[in-house]
Amino acid sequence: MTAIGLRDLTIGYGGDPVVHGVTLDIAEGESFALVGESGSGKSTVLKAIAGLAPDWSGAITVLGQARGHRPDRNFARVCQMVFQDPYGSLHPRKTVDDTLAEPLAIHGIGEHADRVVDMLAAVGLDRRFRFRFPHQLSGGQRQRVAIARALMLEPKVLLLDEPTSALDVSVQAEILNLLKRLRRERNLTYLMVTHNLHVVAFMCERLAVMRHGRIVETADVDRLRQGTFDNAYSRELYAASGGAGAPIAAAG
User: Fold this and answer.
1) Which of 30, 80, 179, 180 could staple 251 via S-S, CB 3.0–4.6 A?
2) What is the DSSP letter of 127?
3) CA dist., res. 90 & res. 93, Å (int)
4) Measured at the alpha carbon of residue 239, what is the angle toward residues 236 and 240, in degrees to the nearest 5?
């Protein structure tokens, strides 16, 4: 089954298109990356799927459910997004408990306390963190909370917008390992935006290279590791990044 389907997706801001005619099929259970330089439109694609960039044309489907232009509460139970900056994405005056319980309350789901504790455990945090505020957490701990919040409604699709780029290098691998484990345990589908080809080689099966709002090439991760791209810009991006490089530490 197709988890994410994009057909001729064109996205604009203030009437000016910044993404042009993107067409993609991402399979259920797959981890797929959008890569490209800053301003290529890759994060805008995620925002359109999540409902944060409503000025678009074409078609978006997630697990067979068509994405409309208006907010849709039911869609939140299918697809969630994890943002780049975990400090900016968490409310500074809400405890971890409040943050994780909020989506449950909105959707009328009970047993808040048990679900919060269970989800904290799933992302590697014990119950001591439940009543802490974001400023009392490290960057890695904040991103674990952000991932836990995204999973509270048990969606099957996660949109990951540079999920480790705001973190110290020492904790980036921990978060990537966590995401890899969660995907395996929960049969999740990932659409990840990143500029880091090391991350793509570790996390994904396929990738699309974007430039100036268009996809210039789609490739499997073996071609990334070998550097055998067809498109000249893809080869330039690969060379500029130093290639896929040494692998990230294996998931535990």
Assistant:
1) 180
2) G
3) 9
4) 85
**Structural contact between residues 130 and 117, judged by C-beta atoms closer than 8 angstroms:** yes
Reference 156, options 182, 180, 174, 176; nearest CA is 182
pTM score over 0.85: yes
Residue whose token pair is 């996205």? 11
- Reference 196, options 165, 217, 166; nearest CA is 165
Burial class (CB in 10 A: 0-12, 13-18, 19+), 135: exposed
- pLDDT tens per residue, range 115-126: 999 999 999 999
Instruction: Give the whole-angstrom CA distance, residue 127 versus residue 177.
Output: 21
d(CA 92, CA 107): 23
Domain 1-71+158-164+189-252 grouped into CATH 3.40.50.300: yes
Where do the domains of the chain lie? 1-71+158-164+189-252
Residue owning tokens 């994410």 = 4
